[in-house]
Amino acid sequence: MLYKKVLWGCATFRYHMIKDLLEHCPDEEVADLAHDLWKSLTMEITFLVGQEGFDTLYARSVFLTENASPWQDHSAPQPLDRPITDPLLPSAETSLTPAQIRVTTRQLLSVFIGVLSTLIGNQVTARILDVAWKKFMMHPVKE
Q1: Model-level pTM?
Q2: How far lies 97's CA from each of 11, 90, 135, in Å?
Q3: Cβ density class 67-96: b for 16+ within 10 Å, e for less
Q4: Average pLDDT in the chain
Q5: What pLDDT does 1 receive?
Q6: How many Å apart are CA 63 and CA 83, to the nearest integer?
Q7: What pLDDT, in 10s, does the model give residues 4-37?
């Protein structure tokens, strides 16, 4: 378990873990998986910093990610217009392909987790990810 916590602190490991989760998911389920990843992470973050804190982190991540994402055509969600009560990407209304959902989710989660890690440190971020995503991992973390 210590090994995994150390690795969660590594940006390359986080990127590949997210990529593997998304790539091994069937196309017809990738939007649901992306939504579930965000929802689980959102619950843990809002527990610690509140909805406004999460919204701020999410807005910053969207800003940092949007130029390189598939939704750069300005159909991107506008996270500052309203509170984020549910993860914005992907949703049933998006016209993104499964490949675009994978890329967008991977990029946005990687940036979001990187910003979070910069603010609160790798160890706390690793623990949050362990708790939030334990059901998505092959070997869930014991509590």
Answers
A1: 0.75
A2: 26, 10, 25
A3: eebbbeeeebbebeeeebeebbbbeeebeb
A4: 76
A5: 43
A6: 16
A7: 444 545 667 777 888 888 998 899 999 889 989 9
> Which tokens hold the place of 45?
């973050």
Full DSSP string of the chain: -HHHHHHHTSHHHHHHHHHHHHHTS-GGGHHHHHHHHHHHHHHHHHHHHHHHHHHHHHHHHHHHHGGGSTTTTTTS--TTSS--SS--SS-TT----HHHHHHHHHHHHHHHHHHHHHHH-HHHHHHHHHHHTGGGSSSPPP-
Cα of first residue to Cα of last residue in the chain, in angstroms, is: 11
| Residue whose token pair is 């807005």 | 59
